[in-house]
Amino acid sequence: MRCTHLLFVVLLLLACQQQKVQDTVTEVQVEKKEKKQEPVFDFISLEYIMGKFDPSKDKGFVAIPLKYSDREGMYMRKEAMKAFEEMNEAALKDGVKLVIRSAARNFDYQKGIWEKKWTGATKLSDGTNVATDIPSAKAKALKILEYSSMPGSSRHHWGTDIDFNSFENSWFESGEGLKLFNWLEANASKYGFGRPYSKKGSDRPHGYNEEKWHWSYLPIANSLTAFAERQLKNEMIQGFQGAETASEIDIVSKYVLGIHSSCKK
Ligand SMILES: [Zn+2]
């Protein structure tokens, strides 16, 4: 009788052990699946995607050397910087000179840009004075949103997005600009860069107008986009003049996610 009991206990222990192994395997599989779907970077948070930090004091960011840019004091994520340097080396060999005109801009910086346009202190590139030429708040915001983001909703907060050479699409349509644009279209993806603000159409019905100068380091930006899709809400976009229009305009799904499909994978 004792022997039978002992055998039963041994079998029970073996069964438990087997279950433990199975549980561990399942946990690893789940973890692997999650990681495959969306690489998680420990710096990602709502504060981060809304630009509520100082890139000059963030250890994930580096200052952009003057040899790559048109002014001092710009920052980008170090991973994006490394990829840019590799891409730039290849571009130079092909006679293409990339100049970074803008990179990381935090919430406060973007608030400055937005409010200068909102108050009419700065006219838009087509000469519009938003404060005097456009009556309703929603129409004002939509006009500025043709090319500028609301603070808290810009990809430039992320340190992954950079603007090259010129803020005029026409510059990229002939001569040196066209050569540079064609080179980027053919080669940028090899270094992880993609263009979120492609021509508007069936693939991209909503969002900012086309920006031939704006490129994004997708190995990190795509995780930030996925996080924004899950966590960022229209009502969180606040703290600047005109913010009351964010929900009505549906800033998150129309603008933050109004990007080319290649930038959403
Ligand atoms: Zn840009």
Q: Architecture of the largest domain, according to CATH?
A: 2-Layer Sandwich
Q: What is the N-to-C succession of helices and strands?
A: HHEEHEHHHEHEEHHH
Shape: globular
Number of helices: 10
Could you describe the largest sheet, including whether it forms a barrel? Answer: 4 strands, antiparallel
Low-confidence stretches: none
Class computed from helices, strands and strand pairing: alpha+beta
CATH topology of the largest domain: Muramoyl-pentapeptide Carboxypeptidase, domain 2
Tell me the count of domains. 2
Could you give a quick summary of the protein structure above?
With 265 residues, the protein is of the alpha+beta class. Helices cover 45% and strands 7% of the residues. The chain has helices spanning 2-37, 46-49, 78-93, 107-119, 130-133, 137-144, 175-187, 218-231, 246-249, 251-256, and strands at 61-63, 75-77, 100-102, 161-164, 193-194, 214-217.
